[in-house]
Amino acid sequence: MQIINLFKIFGPNPNSVLPLIRDGISKTSLLRDHGHVLGLSNISLSVPAQKIQVVMGLSGSGKSTLIRHINRLVEPTFGQVFVDNADILKLSRDQLLSFRRNNVSMVFQNFALLPHRNVEQNVAYGIINQGCSEATAFKRCKEWIDKVGLIGYEKHFPCQLSGGMQQRVGIARALATGAELLLMDEAFSSLDPLTRSDMQNILLKLQSELKKTIIFITHDLNEALKIGDRVAILRDGLLVQEDEPQNIILKPADKYISNFTSEIERGKFIKVSAVMEKSGQGAKLTLSSDMTINEALQEFGSYGQDKANVIDEKGNMIGFVNLKKLINSMIPPEGTGIKRPN
Amino acid sequence: MEIFDNFPTMGRQDLRDFKNVIDSSFREFSRAYGENLENFFEPLLFFLIWFERCLISAPWPLIIVVIAVLAWVGSKSWYIVVGSVVAFLIIGYFGMWENTMATIAIISVATFLCILFGIPIGIWMAKSDRARSAFTPLLDVMQTIPSFVYLIPVVMLLGIGKVPGLLAVCIYAVPPIVRLTDLGIRLVDKEVLEAADAFGASYRQKLWDIQIPLALPNIFAGINQTIMMALAMVVIASMIGVKGLGVPVLRAISNQYLALGVMNGLAIVALAIIFDRILQKYGHRLQRHRQNQVHN
Fold first, then answer.
1. Are A3 and A44 in contact (CB under 8 A)?
2. B197 vs A contacts (CB less than 8 Å)
3. How far is CA B9 from the centre of its chain?
4. Chain A environment of B188 (Cβ under 8 Å)
5. What is the mean pLDDT of residues B79-107?
6. Of residues B114 and B151, more confidently modeled
7. What confidence tens digit (pLDDT) does each residue in A112-157 have?
């Protein structure tokens, strides 16, 4: 999935101000002097197949607009969106309907379940839209109701369920269509913290067996780093950085991002492979390279060591790490708003 | 200055000619097409007469049973069933049975016609802003113009009788169902519609699966209002030859018969309340997903 040079401008005549934006006019001056609102500016993003791509940004950064371009709930001002080598923006009305029915599905922030349909009917909604009979659809959706842990609630209406359960219905509905591309628009943002963490784990577990291509929108950096294979950060309609989660922390592209990351518990997200050295002496303890620093520290603690070898997933020795280095990597660099203890 | 004291009018002769032109051209129109229109409405007239006759000639216990069953099916409430039966027994006991049956006949047919035309127009208005801005002033006129004013052209075209009466009732009673259908559909949660779009629902699927079911409470309120307004028109319609409870009321007005007027007036009220309660209960039951909220 690929987004190429995407622009979205809201206003009476978007195309007239497109050249100004290419010349780098600021968002405020565009609104003040020309009466247009900049939604997205020159976004190019290549989403890896079967991975979770997180798009993170604060409200107004354009992340919800961006995700809606992929199934064309929002029409772009300029640009291209490719899914499986097909340019989504060139689809005819019928092709678009078929694309939305079969190839892409969506999970919404406020669940957007059909209030007059029960759980089973909601999960079956996408399948029925594909043209399936109700009986087959109910049979097929049973599996998904099971996967999200809602067996026994088939006949309940959405208003009888808690927020977390409603969003499980939302996820089951999205997965049931069999679409390979899953768009999640702040899917967990309206849930309380415990439920949210629960749902993140459910999503990761489902993803480990399903291997969908997921685009996940969030305003929460912790959530972004936890579930993303890649994280893109949007600010005022511009793509500021796109990288793997630990690099967002280790190599923030600018002050804006480093301000965010200073609040993050680094040990949870930085991997051993990022802090290891290529050379060193052998040690008694062996760690795997995709362990987080927190996990590595636990190992050091329980074995009473201060040095370790690092191996990759195949078991080859690829480097060395010591306790001091691990602890140092947990302290955010200077100038990020957090004071170092003297 | 004189112009400020006397409003500049178009002149008496001109005004008279102006009205004459309108009157005579409409008269010509009704002479040319009146019969065609009457023929056009003939099946409706037959149906109306047939339905009225059925209601009047059927044995009264059968009608009471039918009413009790309908009340039960609609409301599932014993209070309403018993109330309806008692009301009809009292109406019959006071000798108003036939008129009441005639009124029910015309109200049912009028309501049916209003639903048949009103709901599709409401759906159209919800879909297209242009249709909405075209129909809204028309509905305003239909609701506010004194009923006697549109009785004139209707009577000129179709004469006196059941069909013009029925048309008059429909003109008066159709606006609420159109407006509330439009409103109900427009009030459907945008997020739910966005979800439907995201899952590839066509316009038709969105309409039948989501918009109409979620607009049902409002549509039902519209049907309810339509019936109430049709009942309110019964007396006026009786002026142009519609049989029913309006006729004795009209006689009571012209002869100052207090008791006759009040009795028949109360019979109309009883019908209104019975229809209203049954429909309201039915509307509520359709919305069972909104009740028993466990969370939130």
1. yes
2. 73, 100
3. 39
4. none
5. 94
6. B114
7. 999 999 999 999 999 999 988 989 999 999 999 999 999 999 999 9
Q: Does A114 touch chain B (CB under 8 A)?
A: yes
More confident residue, B143 or B183: B183
Contact (CB, 8 A) for B278 and B80: yes
* DSSP per position, A9-51: EESS-HHHHHHHHHTT--HHHHHHHH--EEEEEEEEEEPPTTS
Helices (H), chain A: 14-22, 27-34, 63-70, 93-102, 119-129, 134-147, 163-176, 193-210, 221-227, 245-250, 255-261, 272-275, 293-303, 323-329
The two structure tokens encoding residue A340: 């170092």
Query: What does each C-alpha distance from A182 to A51, A70, A133, A219 come to in angstroms?
Result: 10, 10, 24, 18
pLDDT of residue A302: 87
Tell me how far apart the alpha carbons of residues B14 and A274 are, in angstroms, rounded to a whole number: 97
User: What whole-number distance in Å separates Cα of residue A225 and Cα of residue A231?
Assistant: 7
- Determine contact: A168 vs chain B, CB below 8 A: no
Residue in chain A nearest B198 by alpha carbon: A100
Over chain B, what is the mean pLDDT?
Answer: 90
Cβ–Cβ below 8 Å for B200 and A106: no
Confidence of residue B293 (pLDDT cuts 50, 70, 90): very low
In whole angstroms, what is the distance from residue A255 CA to residue A336 CA? 8
In this predicted structure, what is the pLDDT of residue B296?
37
Q: Nearest CA to CA, how far is B218 from chain A (Å)?
A: 15
Flag if B290 and A105 touch (Cβ within 8 Å).
no
Q: Order across the sheet with A307-311: list the strands.
A: A285-288, A307-311, A317-322
Q: What is the pLDDT of residue B22?
A: 93
Higher pLDDT, A153 or A307: A153
- The verdict on B204 touching A (C-beta cutoff 8 Å) is no
- Interior/surface letters A278-308, b for 16+ CB within 10 angstroms, e for the rest: eebeebebebbbebbbbebbebbeeeeeebb
CB-CB contact of B100 with B270 (8 Å)? no
With a CB-CB cutoff of 8 Å, which residues 275-334 of chain A face chain B? none
Element (H, E) at A230: strand A230-235
**Per-residue pLDDT band at B295 (split at 50, 70, 90):** very low
Distance CA B109, CA B20 (A): 36
Report chain A's mean pLDDT, rounded to a whole number: 89
**Contacts of residue B292 in chain A, CB cutoff 8 Å?**
159-160
Q: What's the mean pLDDT in B264-279?
A: 93
Q: What percent of chain B has pLDDT over 70?
A: 97
Structure tokens, A211: 């291997």
